[in-house]
Design a protein that fits this description.
single chain; alpha+beta; five-stranded antiparallel β-sheet; binds flavin-adenine dinucleotide; eight-stranded antiparallel β-sheet; Vanillyl-alcohol Oxidase, Chain A, domain 3; about 425 residues; globular; about 30% strand; 12 helices
């Protein structure tokens, strides 16, 4: 185990944490020091849920070995620091894929479980936690134990923000594929009602659905975007993805992304194909991981960093709250071009603090423009709160502490499973007193 003291960052690069960082080479039998402690995967959480200032962070990236794989069932067992990227390198040539995946493969299995990440097939397959039959958990108050689906500690750890102990290894149920390609349709839509109709129409016959939305356009163009739906194809080889070839070499000036450059980009992107629909035979890399092709793309937002705001509003609220949210964002002129809209389905999330719940979810990036940006978020929060929705802690760096229990009604049950030595900047922020 190597130990250093250094600055650790989350993906949004807003406020670094200075921590003692332990990097074990093998799954430890005991946790370091008296604490406070927190595991750190690949730091792809945007906000501060993966940071612990002044504590000990357990960096898991060398806990990356595959321990077992059943080629008949697709059940894989690996150490928790393995990246989804490395799992894909192992399983795609063998005709298997992740059961669900976030928009980057550069996350660890442990980090994906701790945030119970979701992907484009949520309406069919739920979150990653729905496909984790068991994992090994090391707590400061107990020796390593195996937690199975249905156990209370399984439900607390899935989406448990790393606060129930260190996951050292996990099983994941992979899904069979015949090709590394998908049959994809892109459909331009002019507003939220059309988006909802496309989502409903696609739910039964398309495994993966998501939409890019133009969050700068207001007025008659409010809520316009491109609906993307795909099914695994029977055509094409089991070809692996390539590593990123480009990288952003430095923090760009904060003014690079402004209302005018984003508007120009969005207009071109919205009109990127002729006609209303385009079909593609597309490899999984550009379909699932378009941003992984550019290393350190988070530098485009400049030195001050950026926020991602992700909320979900429930079906009972209708589209009204999302229309209000889009109006606020368009009027502010602050949104970036990275904006994603999706409907979550009804597969129950297995974690006490899992974010996905049925409804419409919007995720988009905002460069940090100080008070102006935070005031916009406060207005968006009020709409989400009134609608009975919630925010995603993995993306959050500024949610109000009194909103957290409102958004997560199982929080009190979750508290019974906290590891007494684990905490995070997010958790401290949610408990200011
Ligand atoms: C480009 C991009 C696209 C994304 N798209 C999506 C998406 O579509 N859907 C989605 O849900 N999320 C998405 N995310 C968020 C990302 O998937 C999650 O934040 C993920 O959890 C990050 O994993 P990580 O390994 O980097 O973990 P970190 O960010 O380092 O840590 C995340 C949490 O996991 C805990 N943790 C890490 N390892 C362990 C362990 N071994 N044991 C216990 N706890 C642990 C940490 O303490 C922390 O609380 C995206 C992020 C990026 C940058």
């Amino acid at each position: 185990m190597t130990t250093t003291t250094r600055e650790m960052h989350a993906w949004g690069k807003l406020r670094p944490a200075r921590a003692t960082v332990c990097t074990p080479a093998w799954p430890p039998a005991a946790l370091p020091g008296p604490g406070p402690l927190l595991a750190y995967g690949l730091g792809r959480s945007y906000g501060d849920s993966c940071l612990l200032d002044g504590g000990t962070m357990i960096e898991t990236r060398f806990l990356d070995r595959i321990r077992a794989f059943d080629p008949h069932t697709g059940l894989l067992r690996a150490e928790a620091g393995i990246s989804l990227d490395a799992i894909l390198r192992f399983c795609v040539p063998r005709g298997w894929f992740l059961p669900t995946t976030p928009g980057t493969a550069l996350v660890t299995l442990g980090g994906a479980i701790a945030n119970d990440v979701h992907g484009k097939n949520h309406h069919r397959s739920g979150c990653i936690g729905n496909h984790i039959p068991a994992f090994d958990l090391l707590r400061s108050d107990q020796p390593v134990q195996t937690c199975h689906a249905g156990d209370a500690l399984h439900a607390a750890t899935i989406g448990g923000l790393g606060l129930t102990g260190l996951i050292t290894a996990a099983q994941i149920q992979l899904t069979p594929i015949r090709s590394a390609f998908l049959d994809v349709e892109l459909i331009r839509f002019s507003g939220l009602d059309e988006f909802m109709a496309l989502s409903a129409e696609s739910a039964a016959t398309w495994e993966h659905t998501v939409a890019w939305i133009d969050c700068i356009a207001g007025g008659a163009s409010l809520g316009r975007g491109i609906f993307i739906r795909g099914n695994w194809s029977d055509r094409g080889a089991l070809t692996l993805h390539r590593p990123a070839r480009l990288s952003v070499p430095m923090d760009l000036p904060a003014c690079t992304l402004n209302r005018f450059s984003v508007r120009a980009f969005n207009t071109l992107y919205y009109r990127r194909f002729c006609g209303k629909t385009k079909t593609l035979h597309q490899h999984y890399a550009p379909f699932f991981y378009p941003l992984d092709g550019v290393g350190q793309w988070n530098r485009i937002y400049g030195k001050r960093g950026f926020y991602q705001y992700q909320c979900v509003t429930p079906p009972a609220a209708g589209t009204g709250p999302m229309v209000q949210i889009l109006k606020q964002i368009a009027a502010s002129g602050q949104a970036s071009f990275l904006a994603v809209l999706k409907t979550f389905g009804h597969v129950a999330s297995p974690g006490l603090l899992s974010f996905p719940t049925p409804g419409i979810t919007l995720a988009l990036d905002f460069a940090d423009r100080g008070a102006r940006t935070r005031e916009l978020f406060d207005r968006l929060d009020a709409i989400v709160r009134d609608a009975g929705g919630r925010l995603y802690p993995a993306k959050d760096a500024r949610m109000r502490a009194d909103d957290f229990p409102r958004f997560y009604p199982q929080l009190e049950t979750f508290r019974n499973h906290l590891d007494p030595s684990f905490t995070s900047e997010f958790w401290k922020r949610m408990h200011p007193h």
